[in-house]
Specification:
This protein has 13 helices and nine strands. By secondary structure, the chain is of the alpha+beta class. It folds into two domains: 249 residues, no CATH class; 96 residues, Roll (Chitinase A, domain 3). The longest helix is centred in the C-terminal third of the chain and has 31 residues.
Length: 413
């Protein structure tokens, strides 16, 4: 699952909107959630079914507004309010031809599908919401309120109001996430499908240097490719890699070191895959293209006793966890691929439209209130200052104090 829109903490606070409580939980419900928090009307609207299990509008809203805020803020910095209808201009092939609003909707559905499927798989392994899960989820919620909302229950409630959810929705998400974490822990034990051996950890590391020939305003693709081939020809003739880096290289990182020690995800994919495919003391026979330009890569031995091996030793646990999560992601994707998902698009579209109308009405009411204050002389008295304040308010009213979720408790990508 791609985390393309991981939330960033926002500072502004949305005005509160009343939510209507509908029922009191207080025990394990159909979702396996244990909570004394009140649910709300958005929990009763079903927007999708995953393997026959309901995804509620509140489930969707929780992730949708958290995802949307990052995109929204990015466009606001460019003076664009209507971010939903902006065409996607990134490099993800699956998103080409779509708007950012369509992408956030799609990503949110995928995230919630992953969470629900993960819960279903956890149940098959006998992992359910119990007192320990509730304890960890409650602890995580308190930490979120303290860190993201300064400990303010009022600001936390504003966040809930903005997202059209209740405290129950948050508790449900955090409990589900904790169950997924427990599932990963169980599946990573020795002999299980996500277990990672010491050899796998060591084999994931690569020690390599490279000559980078950038493609930029001063160097065309053809020119950079020709220069990279020139470097390879000199290596073929016995030239020293270090001297070629000094003569041709355009990576500032190589100026003060002779090599990098890295693992998957720490370099661009093209670089890592090409370096990983090399044997010790081998170099790429054709230039490797990435978004930076062309690379000529040389791989060095990396084993106990070799220079740089200390990086492997110091980072062993960190990399093991990354590999475990990668394996879990693969299994999660297989589970999702075989899952049945039915999205009630009309229901979801109608609900989102109604919510946007409500937010727009709230914004207009706030602007009207500001205008009335200025007209009655309760503004700053400085016309330029008041106009600037109004402009800033309009640019930030859609902002929301976001909930930063610990990535380790999220479903794997």
């Amino acid at each position: 699952m791609n985390k393309k829109f991981k939330a960033l903490a926002a500072l502004a606070v949305s005005g509160a909107m009343a939510l209507t409580g509908c029922h009191f939980v207080g025990k394990v419900n159909d979702d396996g959630v244990i909570s004394d928090a009140e649910s709300n009307k958005y929990d009763e609207t079903i927007v999708a079914e995953i393997n026959g299990q309901d995804m509620t509008l509140a489930d969707f809203n929780f992730m949708y507004y958290n995802n949307a805020t990052q995109i929204q803020q990015s466009f606001m910095m460019m003076g664009i309010i209507d971010w939903e209808n902006q065409p996607y201009d990134g490099g993800v092939e699956d998103y080409q031809g779509k708007t950012y609003g369509e992408i956030v909707r799609e990503v949110t559905l995928d995230q919630m599908t992953s969470l629900i499927v993960g819960m279903q798989r956890a149940k098959e392994y006998g992992i359910l919401v119990d007192d320990d899960v509730v304890y960890e989820a409650d602890k995580n919620k308190k930490q979120i309120i303290d860190q993201e909302f300064g400990g303010s229950e009022e600001e936390y409630e504003n966040y809930l109001d903005y997202c059209f959810i209740s405290d129950y929705t948050v508790e449900k998400y955090l409990q589900r996430s904790q169950v997924i974490t427990d599932l990963i822990d169980q599946l990573s034990q020795d002999g299980e499908v996500c277990a990672v051996t010491d050899k796998e950890v060591e084999d994931s590391f690569v020690k390599a240097s490279h000559v980078l020939i950038s493609v930029d305003d001063d160097t065309t693709d053809e020119q950079a490719l020709a220069t990279a081939n020139e470097v390879i020809a000199k290596l073929d003739g016995g030239a020293d890699m270090k001297s070629l880096i000094a003569e041709y290289g355009e990576d500032p990182g190589m100026e003060n070191q002779d090599y990098y020690v890295f693992t998957e995800g720490e370099m661009v994919d093209e670089f890592y895959e090409a370096a990983k495919a090399l044997g010790d003391n081998e170099y790429t026979k054709t230039p490797v293209r990435s978004s930076y330009g062309y690379h000529v890569i040389y791989r060095y031995p990396l084993a106990s006793g070799e220079e740089g091996y200390e990086d492997v030793t110091s980072r062993r646990d960190e990399v093991r966890n990354t590999l475990i999560n990668n394996k879990f992601s693969e299994h999660m994707q297989q589970w999702i691929d075989t899952a049945s998902r039915k999205v009630y698009d009309d229901v979801l579209d109608e609900a989102l439209a109604a919510q946007q109308e409500e937010l727009a009405a709230q914004q207009q009411a706030m602007l009207d209130s500001m205008s009335q204050q200025q007209a009655s002389g309760t503004g700053s008295g400085d016309a330029a200052s008041d106009a600037a304040d109004a402009s800033n308010s309009e640019a930030t009213e859609d902002s929301v104090p976001e909930m930063e979720v610990d990535p380790e408790t999220e479903p794997a990508e």
